[in-house]
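Hey, quick one: can you model this chain's 3D structure?
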Amino acid sequence: MEESEARRLAEEFGRTLTDRWDEWAFKLGLWATPAVTGIYGFTWYPTAKDEQGRQIRIGGNWPILVDQDSGACRVVHGPNEMAALRGTSEVRTTRWRDATARRQPRPDGR
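Sure thing. Here's the predicted structure for all 110 residues.
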């Protein structure tokens, strides 16, 4: 299966997960999954316009996986599967931060 077909299937699947796909301007992005073969992974996240009118990412969801043989779609099942798909043995979590936002100091002053 070509990436374009997998992307189409992922978008169709994503639209079943939210009734606000168009309203929230969801974007699909190819997600690199080096530890796994036979699947395409796609990030999908809502966007909004910033003060300058540029579309920016405002959130995210577990990636959508598309089986290259069957075309079956599903989302990643939590942090342990996410770590396995990344090829890591530990579970890592990150906080998305708006790079244009003013940094707020931590309570410890850092």
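One thing worth noting: The first helix runs from residue 3 to 17.
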